[in-house]
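Course assignment 3, question 2. Fill in each field.
Student: A.L.
Task: Predict the tertiary structure for the chain below.
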Amino acid sequence: MDDAMLVRSAQKGDERAFAALVRRNERRLYATAYSILGSSWDASDACQDAFLEAWAKIGTLRDPSSFRPWMVRIVVNKCHTAHRKTRRLVVVEAVPEREAHEFIGPESALDLAEAVRLLDENHRTVIALRYFSDLRIDDIAGILGVPSGTVKSRINRALGRLKDSLGAESTEVHDEL
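Answer field:
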């Protein structure tokens, strides 16, 4: 069953259909949230809040085939809300976070994850949406409410900053992106 059919069923109150949508999209949405927030706990909370909101508002989704961009928009909004809340917090001592989801692969992936985390919010968000959620430029523009050209320039600048921050090894990573 494709996503559009599951959405129609969920709109009629089918909890199993919505659960199937969650299972299909949770890893990608978590990766997006994690890349924006940089914390596994915060990313998990943002995704959980987003799924709860999506279930409550599934009936308002007019085009069932646009579930994924709609869901990503909810996750991004939850991430931005969480980010605004954490900016107000004063950290007395940084507690090392034990990640629930570890990176598997070459060490450069860890460097890349750290470099993405250090980008400003706008650049981190477009990288997350393009490369972790695998969304098209037009979908990202719709989610963020900006023109496609703005999305392209933010991605270009973000990739340039990633290349600069990763140093000599960045050419390989940039080519892979």
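Instructor remarks: The chain has two domains: 1-94, 103-177. Confidence is low (pLDDT under 50) at residues 89-95, 98-108.
Grade: pending
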